[in-house]
Amino acid sequence: MDGYTDGYLAPQAPSGESATRLTPMQLKILKGVQSGRLNKQIAFDLGIAEATVKAHMTALMRKLNVRNRTQVALAAQSMDRMAMERLAG
């Protein structure tokens, strides 16, 4: 059962290390996803093509070791929580 839940690979909580490997554009897109925005809305906000957002989403999913948009948003929340804990010391 290592890492598996009901036949699906369980997402790993992102480490601070994975957050540091994200590019500035990936972080902007991550924030858009976390806010519940669609790819089209994120593209408009950032002044880039929707296809570019999709490419960044694919890279984000790989880097965060997740399989879908919901898991990307959950990973973003986890990263925010870890950052707040670090600041609280």
From TrEMBL:
**Every HTH luxR-type domain range:** 15-80
Matching entries from SUPFAM superfamilies are given as:
C-terminal effector domain of the bipartite response regulators
Instruction: Give the superkingdom in one word.
Output: Bacteria
SMART domains (alphabetical)? HTH_LUXR
Q: Where is this region: Disordered?
A: 1-21
- PANTHER family for the chain: HTH-TYPE TRANSCRIPTIONAL REGULATOR YHJB-RELATED
The protein in question is named HTH luxR-type domain-containing protein
Species in which this protein is naturally found: Rhizomicrobium electricum
